[in-house]
């Protein structure tokens, strides 16, 4: 009987020890999860976030995100998403932030909260060399393309010249990615395209087989920022504070030089 009691007591103690270990492990995992975040991006948006020849995600935003994660001691991962559904993915909880050349607009501000702006951009008009398009007004009657649900489309729609009404069929031809947009221009189906200047100049530098013409006119200046759910104030403030810190240090300048001053 004594042996039985000792055995039962041993099992109880072992159970307590095991439970304690499991609780500690669960707490550690919970702590890790609390500081783990998923960034949604368009993985074709060079040079902000795209795949290199080895299939690895690289780019200005990738490097900047990793620098901030290191500063905050957070773990981040990158999730390619349908750019047309980016705010839906964010507010459904499938991602924790939108970060990939994400332009601040009034429409988007109704759906997300933005971090500190970190890069200026413009909506550039690109066509092929040798045609008769030299100004924004020359887009009258022309086929003009841009990425679906992009700030390029918003900029065209809100342009005070109302030039959109003069496009062929009074519409912007829209494609899922900017690669598709450029391909449509190169093929001659579109006669002009509107793209982010950051992407456009990088793309043209990497694809010199075609001769492009960039118009002096554009569809406006803008700023990039990180998009957060509107109830994630603590996370937004942490990333904004770290972003401000990094922008004051050499880290930001080093990343900028790497991607824009080669």
UniProtKB/TrEMBL annotation:
It comes from the Bacteria. Keywords: Signal. It comes from Alkalibacterium gilvum. It is found in: Cell envelope. Belongs to the bacterial solute-binding protein 3 family. InterPro entries: Iontro_rcpt_C, SBP_3_CS, Solute-binding_3/MltF_N. Pfam families: SBP_bac_3 (PF00497). Residues 1-26 form the signal peptide. Residues 36-262 form the Solute-binding protein family 3/N-terminal domain. One of its GO terms (cellular component) is membrane. This is Polar amino acid transport system substrate-binding protein. Residues 36-262 form the Ionotropic glutamate receptor C-terminal domain. One of its GO terms (molecular function) is ligand-gated monoatomic ion channel activity. Its main location: other.
């Amino acid at each position: 009987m004594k042996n039985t009691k000792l055995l039962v007591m041993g099992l109880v103690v072992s159970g307590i020890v095991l439970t304690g270990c499991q609780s500690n492990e669960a707490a550690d995992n919970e702590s890790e999860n609390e500081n783990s975040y998923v960034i949604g991006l368009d993985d074709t948006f060079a040079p902000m976030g795209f795949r290199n020849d080895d299939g690895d995600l690289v780019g200005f935003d990738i490097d900047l995100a990793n620098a901030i994660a290191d500063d905050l001691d957070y773990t981040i991962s990158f999730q390619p998403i349908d750019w047309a559904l980016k705010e839906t993915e964010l507010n459904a909880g499938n991602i924790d932030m939108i970060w990939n050349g994400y332009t601040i607009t009034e429409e988007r501000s109704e759906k997300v909260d933005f971090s500190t702006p970190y890069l200026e951009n413009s909506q550039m008009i690109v066509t092929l060399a040798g045609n008769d398009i030299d100004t924004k007004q020359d887009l009258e009657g022309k086929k003009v393309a841009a990425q679906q649900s992009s700030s390029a489309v918003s900029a065209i729609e809100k342009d005070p010249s109302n030039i959109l009404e003069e496009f062929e069929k009074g519409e912007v031809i829209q494609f899922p990615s900017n690669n598709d947009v450029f391909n449509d221009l190169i093929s001659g189906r579109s006669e002009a395209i509107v793209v982010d200047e950051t992407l456009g100049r990088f793309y043209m530098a990497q694809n010199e087989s075609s001769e492009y013409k960039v118009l002096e006119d554009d569809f406006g200046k803008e700023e990039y920022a990180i998009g957060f759910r509107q109830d994630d104030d603590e996370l937004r403030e942490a990333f904004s504070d770290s972003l401000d810190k990094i922008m004051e240090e050499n880290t930001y300048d080093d990343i900028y030089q790497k991607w824009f001053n080669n």
